[in-house]
């Protein structure tokens, strides 16, 4: 069984690398995908390719739509969507991805610290697992693919 | 043409009442639905009916799932989903609803102030309209149903 | 908001009547449906109409398929599927209905006593609510439609 | 033609191994998948990875949801879902899987002893074949892929 | 519970009238639909409205497509599709409708005499009931809606 | 049988009124819908409600998206989509609507003059009928609902 | 571009071999599938594996359902479904397959002699091509994959 | 991540070759497909294989349907559909393809000159990007797959 996993959300820590490295070390058969995590490129991609906009709304609009080509592909192809909410920022795109994943019937794993627990209760309620650490995601994917538990 | 409209998001101002009153005054044929907007009831509904939980996570979990019965029904039955982001709080459930609406192919209208523009760019990019005032939503629904413009 | 509710499962107690009476007393706008609960008619409907079978397997087969016309219609039209597991019998058709409801994206409410908790964990995990008493179902449907809590 | 086959249900006998060995011996092009069949791991996976729960309900809930990531993937990817009901236990998860498979339009094969015939009539009625022995499943899969009959 | 029933197939006997009259006499809440049963109009509708064709293939083609507007609507809106195969003619359109109904997940009832049993085995295998007489269809619909058996 | 019919395409002649008047005169049970046909309102609706744009592209973009709320609702609710191509203009939105209708499995009727025959061959190939006059559409809808032919 | 092609219908002439040989000679990248074409095996597969039936209806029923595992897989995986109607027999299963293919949005090619033209008009009306000779199917598949015409 | 891209629309300039060459030079992992771009073959394929037609409408009809086998396969398999509108001709098939792509939830990129901006506003409104040059499409696909911007 090969698993497709999309890693959505926070882009300012190394959680994606931690999960991918952990799964690779465990020899799991997983195809990972993720949004573009280069913040500057992600913000400016629309105008850089399709032409400048004076109005910041349309500047952002062009970029967000171009990013959506990659994001939709990643979510629609995924068996499992992992969404991480970091400590900072609004991260509405992470919650938006979680809503898409839920509506498409994907297995949803949410990753966040205890302080966000109440604010994320609707997102957590749609998930099959809520974790705090990337290590737990590696352990879950190991269990899903191998049936073995840590330790 | 009758239109089903779901009003998602912020629950601390009267924006829903403004839109419903405006549409009623205009005589529009619209069936509105919305989440439970009584904050205390919404937070505690799960444990109030299904039994107390010591752990706050499960307290919230039970409530969020019970609320999901109403939310899903509202979104799935809707032709148009209006999602409002207020000035305060994380409002991740609003973004989650927007993601569900987008994935289900609903016509999405997003309502927020200019200061949230950059943080909401992915949500706005999935919308058919982005407005700031409830009055504009009334005007759009009037145009959609009647073909007439304000003024 | 009108709600369609399908009441699946156990047929040897009055739980359906309790829920319907409670919702009627509360004045809720709900369209209930359910399988045929006359055990003898349900078992023999196939051969009674389509001709006798010597082999018990085909006797049952004809009846089960005829009942499926009603069951599928009820589940597919439902917003909410309530599945009750009683104290006795295998009740595999109840779990089968729950699986169909889950796969079709219906809001699932499971109703069972504490002694069945472990055996029903997979079914409960797919549900939006797990209750023990019909009264709790009435209270949940009241909350979903009205936003009000008991007491 | 490659066939994807999910083997659901009873975990206390070697029926899965029998089917897989028989198909391998026949040289059939089949990709098998199945739930985790290590009973202890399956029961405790949720708390082992995501943290202990005092309440047995939530202990089971966490585990059942984590197992659902694997189960859903297996059923959704399958062309054929084989569900075996053993002699003992409630096995409601087996009937739940059968309901999901039926609702998703999968080809369903049910495997059970004669004594369960009446109790499983609704499940059997949704199946394309009802067998008693793993050998028969091997013979059917051989026929489906090769067009040849046993003997 | 209101039931939508589409009556497909043979147009040279009164079986539709028998079923509709029987259901009306029983006071059942059913919305019936059916293809145009005026053979001459059905054959010539395309050219009568859209202009003559020299080639018989296109004459038939225009008519068959115009009839498909009604047929598709009837089948797609139906809960139950009843397909009758009469004694004569190829009746490939009846089998085609049955295939559409099966693929769309409709409850399929097939009506035919014993002499067609072997030739219709694939169609019967997709059905929830196989009957010989219109009276049996009335009895089944009565059972589905009321839970009562004849006699 | 009630039919929902969406009238897409050309907005500079009275073809919609002709069809609606003809069907009304015939007493047909049809619910018609259509895009906003006030050309000026349709072009400017976005900026009139949501604020002016300097760039003509975004001026048009806002308007086209607002119009899409009505268009999508009309097409998705329709049983039959009639698309008329007039003598003038590019009318790419008409062909776009036809593509949407085809992909959604709607019964498509195309209405155009003989001079557009070659250019519209792909659109016509997806249609169930190709006509030249609104009168023919009335006759077809009469036939679909009543089974009677003109004259 | 690889194409999946399912060859349904008549089993008494070599038309499948002709098409497969022609496509192989042309070097086309096509994955063919088809029903079991061994008439005796196809008729008796159910009872041979799952046990004898006294009643011919259930004998046929078991076989038809077992064959359906292969047929459904073939049609659902196909891009193109070719259905051939031969000179003899009722061939209702061929028309049934065509109906399934049409409902699932598959590209349908129908193959039959001129004498069946009127009786097959509804099936032909749902097809993208109607041909008389296997050679024409090879030519069409060559054109679809290569863009080249014969001669 | 492998991307499937369908290149629809104008067939009289080298824009497809430009995009494919640019993506190849960049080493992108993309599977391109497109309609048959040999204008004469595309117009005559139907009659060349399936027999001549006197009436030009049916000549075109046969060809358009045969081309649809390839077109549908290309669009349905695509992650991204690029539709180019050239300077000349009606190009209704391009807009039709765009409508199909939008209804199927494909990521749509539209390519056209500034003079078509107003006429294409509805098509552009359904797109995730609107570009003028093939080079921009190469840059977008590079960004989608690699996350890198030009320059």
UniProtKB/TrEMBL annotation, chains A, B, C, D, E, F, G, H:
InterPro entries named in the record: YtoQ_family_protein (IPR019884)
Protein name in the entry: YtoQ family protein
Lineage, uppermost ranks: Bacteria, Pseudomonadati, Pseudomonadota, Alphaproteobacteria, Rhodobacterales
């Amino acid at each position: 069984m090969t698993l497709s996993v999309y890693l959505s959300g926070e882009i300012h820590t190394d959680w994606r690398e931690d999960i991918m490295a952990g799964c690779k070390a465990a020899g799991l058969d997983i195809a990972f995908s993720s949004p573009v995590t280069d913040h500057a490129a992600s913000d400016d991609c629309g105008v850089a390719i399709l032409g400048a906009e004076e109005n910041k709304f349309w500047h952002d609009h062009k970029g967000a739509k171009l990013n959506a080509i990659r994001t939709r592909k990643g979510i629609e192809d995924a068996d499992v969507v992992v969404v991480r909410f970091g400590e900072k920022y609004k991260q509405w795109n992470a919650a938006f991805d979680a809503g898409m994943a839920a509506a498409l019937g994907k297995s949803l794993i949410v990753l966040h610290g205890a302080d966000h627990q109440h604010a994320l209760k609707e997102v957590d309620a749609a998930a099959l697992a809520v974790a705090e650490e990337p290590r737990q995601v590696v352990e879950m994917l190991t269990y899903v693919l191998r049936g073995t538990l840590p330790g």
